[in-house]
């Protein structure tokens, strides 16, 4: 018996060491800074069509790998809402200074489903002061700067889904799936369980076979219901309980999709400062160009903006920049079906990749050389 216990103990210690070493190696791997990782990742994964990269530099199509592939946007889709917000503000349809009670935003807030984004925004708002309301422009700012999903859902109601969904077409974008309330969609599994008394496995099966029109309509119906009857604490707990990785994957896969080619086109319009009238940029730039709040960036950039997004399986980003030598760059990168290490390494290196592209002509040439042949996948 003692020998058996020692064997069990030895195995447990060995497993513990293996896990500890694995965690240490994982942490070391994701801490490495290597902007070229993005290039090599695109090169290695391009055949799967789960990664797409489109870059324009000074009007030239620098790179376009799988640029036509529709991939889930995650929070990068919030750029569309920012554009509609700016257009309505410029036309006087909404008042950016109108006060919005934070309790109105709480109707669409589900704790621990947005990576702490909404809480971080609230914390920043209340630094050194107590407030229970903010101007509408600050709600839009929180949607882009902090990626608050609650703010996004609130703005869907203010701006109107029909208006929001007219934006891509007005920009010449034909491959953009409709925007819908993505926070409300989190409640669909719980709704199905309550409506039909289904088990988790049965709900998974129903959702996998549900067409997108029904899925979007359910999300819109839930959104409209929350306006008058917000979630109870019990319902919030039920959402968080049901949102395991299986349901998160379905939610992630069903997020609005578009292409990097289309988002580079949108970035070009934001970068040019001539596509919209000046009054639209007056409201759009303060929301989109969070980068320019950093004094170091203002020393070498005329203007720049970006919005990224992620889920457990997705990483996306779209950005634009004009430097003081008048070089103009637009980049869109979308990746889906990521594992934990891939997502961590992409997140760690994306900013370095962008900066090096903007500042290093040799790196730009290297990217073109490494990826230009991959156009063969773009059929």
Describe the structure.
By secondary structure, the chain is an alpha+beta fold. It folds into 3 domains: 1-31; 34-73 and 258-377, no CATH class; 75-257, no CATH class. Helices cover 56% and strands 13% of the residues. The chain has 18 helices and 9 strands. The protein has helices at 2-31, 36-45, 78-90, 102-106, 117-125, 136-145, 149-159, 161-170, 188-196, 200-209, 212-228, 233-242, 245-253, 260-272, 278-288, 295-298, 340-359, 361-371, and strands at residues 51-57, 60-65, 71-72, 99-101, 133-135, 257-258, 301-310, 315-323, 328-335. The strands form 3 sheets. Strands 2-1-9-8-7 form a 5-stranded antiparallel sheet, with helices on both faces. The protein has a two-stranded antiparallel ribbon with strand order 3-6. A hairpin with a 4-residue loop joins strand 7 (301-310) and strand 8. Helix 1 packs parallel to helix 17, helix 3 (78-90) packs across helix 7 and helix 6 (136-145) packs across helix 7 (149-159). The model has no long low-confidence stretch (mean pLDDT 91).
Task: Summarize the helices and strands and which ones pair or pack.
Blueprint: H1 2-31, H2 36-45, E1 51-57, E2 60-65, E3 71-72, H3 78-90, E4 99-101, H4 102-106, H5 117-125, E5 133-135, H6 136-145, H7 149-159, H8 161-170, H9 188-196, H10 200-209, H11 212-228, H12 233-242, H13 245-253, E6 257-258, H14 260-272, H15 278-288, H16 295-298, E7 301-310, E8 315-323, E9 328-335, H17 340-359, H18 361-371
Antiparallel strand pairs: 1-2, 1-9, 3-6, 4-5, 7-8, 8-9
Transmembrane segments: 6-26
Organism: Bacillus glycinifermentans
Domain Beta-lactamase class A catalytic: 58-173
């Amino acid at each position: 018996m003692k020998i058996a216990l020692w064997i069990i103990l030895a195995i447990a210690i060995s497993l513990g060491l293996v896990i500890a070493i694995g965690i240490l190696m994982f942490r070391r791997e994701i801490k490495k800074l290597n902007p070229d990782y993005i290039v090599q990742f695109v090169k290695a994964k391009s055949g799967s069509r789960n990664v797409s990269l489109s870059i324009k530099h000074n009007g030239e199509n620098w790179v376009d790998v799988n640029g036509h592939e529709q991939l889930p946007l995650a929070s990068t889709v919030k750029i569309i809402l920012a554009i509609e917000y700016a257009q309505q503000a410029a036309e006087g349809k909404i008042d950016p200074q109108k006060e919005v009670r934070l309790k109105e935003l709480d109707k669409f807030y589900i704790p621990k489903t947005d990576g702490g984004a909404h809480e971080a925004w609230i914390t920043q708002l209340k630094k050194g002061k107590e407030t229970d309301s903010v101007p509408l422009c600050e709600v839009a700012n929180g949607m882009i700067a902090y990626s608050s999903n609650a703010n996004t859902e609130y703005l869907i109601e203010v701006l109107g889904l029909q208006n929001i969904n007219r934006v891509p077409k007005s920009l010449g974008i034909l491959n953009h799936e409709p925007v819908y309330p993505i926070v409300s969609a989190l409640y669909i599994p719980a709704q199905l369980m309550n409506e039909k008394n289904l088990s988790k496995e049965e709900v998974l099966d129903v959702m996998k076979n549900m067409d997108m029109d029904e899925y979007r309509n359910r999300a819109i119906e839930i959104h409209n219901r929350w306006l008058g009857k917000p979630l109870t604490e019990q319902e919030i707990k039920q959402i968080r309980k049901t949102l395991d990785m299986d349901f998160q994957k379905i939610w992630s896969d069903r997020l609005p999709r578009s292409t990097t080619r289309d988002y580079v086109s949108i970035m070009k319009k934001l970068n040019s400062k001539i596509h919209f009238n000046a009054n639209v940029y007056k409201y759009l730039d303060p929301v989109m160009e969070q980068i320019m709040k950093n004094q170091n960036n203002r020393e070498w950039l005329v203007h720049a903006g970006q919005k990224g997004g992620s889920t457990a399986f997705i990483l996306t980003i779209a950005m634009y920049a004009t430097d003081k030598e008048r070089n103009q760059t637009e980049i869109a990168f979308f990746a889906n079906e990521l594992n934990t290490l891939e997502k961590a390494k992409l997140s760690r290196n994306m900013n370095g990749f962008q900066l090096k592209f903007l500042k290093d002509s040799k790196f730009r040439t290297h990217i073109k050389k490494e990826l230009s042949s991959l156009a063969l996948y773009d059929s």
